[in-house]
Every structure is written in structure tokens, then in C-alpha cells.
Model the fold of this input.
Amino acid sequence: MRRSVPLLVLAAVLALPLAVLVPAFLPAPPSQAVLTSADRDALGDPGPERGADPAVPATRPSAPAAVARAYLVAAHGTGADGRTARAGAPYALAGSPAEVGAPVLDPPPPGTHRVAGVESLDESATDWARGRTALVATVRTTTTGPGAGSDVRRWRTRVVLQLDPAGRWLVVADTPITTDTPDVDD
Done:
């Protein structure tokens, strides 16, 4: 019995520093990097200016792959005025990031025209219980103008679609696959 008391004291002496130091080395929760409207107002930053409302297409595709293809072609075409490109909004779920539009980080020079196309579209995953599906697309944009050569760019992007209450597939998000946001197979 007398031997167990020193062992308990030794265990307590060793456990106390571990209990204090281990939490200090654990990773902290991620910061809240997304600014709310109130945050932007407080900072005086209005955020990107929304582009013009696009025309509603006469007919909308019903298959998820066709909706994703129509969205990508519309969303990544010309956007020369520096505002968000909203041409894909008719194919996006209301209130989603895809409906707001993509910021145009590299608008085509004046007098040029940018056309987007989808080279490949592969199903990635589907969650029927939540009514969602994800596709991986290879998008190609070609920027051309009078007296200028063609500038062709390709990238892969993940497109997430969701069934709306009316049973239509609509785009929720379009996330380029990069080293920061790798694909499962990368």
C-alpha cells in the first residue's frame, strides 16, 4: 500500500503537464474567413458588383449533366465589365453561390470575345437521399478578337447540383479543382 502512494504521486506529476501542454499543440478551429454583409458594411467593402440579370432560357435541360454543361458554358463565357458573370444564374439554385455569379478575375481585353465549352463531364458522386449529385468537368475557354491570336485555357472543376422542390436539377456550386481544392483522385 505504501508503494502505491508514490506511484500515484508520480503519475499525477507526469499527467498534469501533459494535460496542460497537449491542448496548446492541438490545431485551432478554422477562422471565420467568410465576410457577412454586416462585416462588409463595417469595413466599407461592398464586395463584387453583381452583373446584370441574365435572360431566362426558353427551355431548360432536365438531366443533371445537361444542366451542368449549360451552366458552365454560360457562366464562364465573356464577362468584360469586371462585375460577376451571372449568365449561368438561370441554371443555379436561388440563393446559392452559383446564382450570385462568378467574379471575373481576368476579363477579356476590349474588343475580344470569350467562349466557354465543356470538353468532358464525368459523374463524381450522387446522394439520392439529399437529392444531390456532383460532376467533374474539364472546361475550355477561348478568347479571340480581331488581329489577336486565340488564348485557350483549360481547367477542371467540380459542379454540385441539387434537386429543387419542383424536381429540377440546379447548380449549387462550381469549384475549380486546384492544389488547394484537390479532386479525390488527385
Notes: The first strand starts at residue 113 and ends at 127. The chain is about 25% helix and 30% strand. Helices lie at 4-25, 37-43, 64-75, 97-100.
